[in-house]
Amino acid sequence: DAGVTQSPTHLIKTRGQQVTLRCSPKSGHDTVSWYQQALGQGPQFIFQYYEEEERQRGNFPDRFSGHQFPNYSSELNVNALLLGDSALYLCASSLGRRQGAGNQPQHFGDGTRLSIL
Amino acid sequence: DAKTTQPNSMESNEEEPVHLPCNHSTISGTDYIHWYRQLPSQGPEYVIHGLTSNVNNRMASLAIAEDRKSSTLILHRATLRDAAVYYCILRSVMEYGNKLVFGAGTILRVKS
User: Fold this and answer.
1) Which has fewest Cβ within 10 Å: A30, B1, B37, B90?
2) What is the DSSP letter of A30?
3) What are the tens digits of pLDDT across the range A88-104?
4) B41: which chain A residues are within 8 Å (Cβ-Cβ)?
5) Could you give the CA distance from residue A22 to residue A78 in angstroms, rounded to a whole number?
């Protein structure tokens, strides 16, 4: 039973470029969340996708956008990259988006390390 | 989102028990206490969660104070593999979706 998989594992970009990160959720999960983790800090919530729509969003600018596909996989897109976007980007999956879903554990991938030069 | 307070770091000897504290004085009646840990170069991993009663699983135990304003994650016999950042997080059962609000966590170092 494959867990959450993310690709690529590492990526180097330059300022102003655009990047797309990919995530396949754990088998049976239909909800995908994305987090940004700067060095030495805890992960920060970017947004969550369920039924192919963005359902919840953290305090991130519109340069950060996403998509969820019918097979529940997801992409995170970041436009006009800044040096401050250098971070570990984590994808987490879970089942369902309903009241009480907060007690379900989230399953995380090992992330994509994005470096901006 | 309700806040938690954890020590920045702790140190333990291998094979000894570890008690990781978490304060959450503003916890509400619908908040569950969740613990995740993050090993080096990996994503966070769910450890345990509870509401009022103490909880045990294969990884750890969670002891919750009677007033619920604090809790303690207990690793019964620390191993080198338990060296990680441990996050204590409150989650409301009333909320839709399940975003996690991480603090800085506690860095646990295990000495051999």
Assistant:
1) B1
2) -
3) 999 999 887 665 656 77
4) 110
5) 12
